[in-house]
Design goal:
By secondary structure, the chain is an alpha/beta fold. It is rod-shaped. About 5% of the residues have low confidence.
Length: about 290
């Protein structure tokens, strides 16, 4: 008789479906890689649990009883449901990971700590990216990117979440005419460029090197070296503290310049649920800097 204190074992259900498919205990045992007597005992356990005979043994094989014919489609349904549940869990587990890129001087430790608090079982990886490597988002080396706007990414391909803004600072060498000022204005800096600039928002990238005849430079350290040598000046977000590590450089607040905006960017349509979790975590802790 069925013992209500015991659960139906899916392993026994699977054994039954294999025997029903082969209509032969020997062939079913070979398929399942179990001994035929052991398989027979397992089927008897299932029949005892269900309280009905499922299979009739015959000299040349076996056939389903009326109860077995009724149970067989239900057995297949049980196994399909179990498989679907397993796949759903595995799919969920596979998406519970995220690779986060972060650019230049940004420190995202608080956001990572909050994300790990919210998703303690998730696999969270980070990747430091240079300003020339923001393509890591497009080619899927990272799932999300925390960087300073504007970014060379197609607006219709990414979803952008503003996090916080920072004012600008001027970086000059000691002895520069502006080094002792308490602040400078955007209009004053216009004269430092080779060509006039209206200082509109679109003109203000995150890192600017100003001065006549300044060659194109990609490396951040080379930019600072150019400033330290007196050949140029730089306008940077105040959150970038790297210039303070170099002796001989002075920072001065800039008034009237559009702020530098830090954003979280992800690919549009990305189904990874960890991106939404990151967005919530980052907004919870990083927007406090605004």
């Amino acid at each position: 008789m069925n013992d209500p204190g015991q659960d139906l074992e899916l392993r026994l259900v699977r054994y039954f479906t294999v025997v029903a498919a082969h209509q032969h205990f020997g062939r079913a045992a070979a398929d399942l890689h179990v001994a035929q007597p052991a398989l027979s005992r397992q089927i008897q356990r299932l029949e005892k649990h269900l309280g009905a005979r499922l299979l009739d043994r015959e000299p040349k094989g076996t056939r389903l009883t009326a109860a077995g014919e009724k149970f067989l489609p239900q057995a297949h349904a049980l196994l399909r449901a179990a498989r679907q549940a397993e796949l759903a869990v595995r799919e969920h587990a596979e998406t519970e990971r995220i690779a986060i890129g972060y650019v230049e001087d940004l420190v995202i430790t608080d956001a990572l700590r909050e994300l790990r608090r919210r998703c303690p079982d998730a696999e969270i990886a980070t990747r430091y990216l240079s300003c020339r490597d923001v393509g890591a988002l497009s080619d899927k080396r990272v799932d999300a990117l925390i960087a300073r706007a504007p970014l060379p990414l197609a607006a219709d391909e990414v979803f952008t979440t503003p996090l916080y803004e920072e004012p600008r600072m001027l970086v000059v060498p000691r002895g520069h005419p502006l080094a002792d000022r308490t602040s400078v204005t955007a209009e004053e800096l216009a004269g430092e460029e080779a060509a006039p600039c209206a200082f509109e928002t679109a003109d203000w990238t995150s890192y600017r090197i100003l001065g006549p005849g300044v060659p194109p430079i990609e490396s951040y350290e080379d930019k600072l070296e150019l400033v330290a040598s007196g050949r140029a000046i730089a306008v940077l977000p105040v959150g970038d503290r790297r210039s303070s590590l170099r002796p001989g450089l002075v920072t001065v607040p800039v008034e009237g310049a559009p702020p530098s905006q830090v954003v979280l960017v992800s690919r549009k349509g990305d189904p990874n649920p960890m991106i939404g979790n990151l967005r919530l975590a980052a907004k919870a802790v990083l927007t406090a800097r605004a």
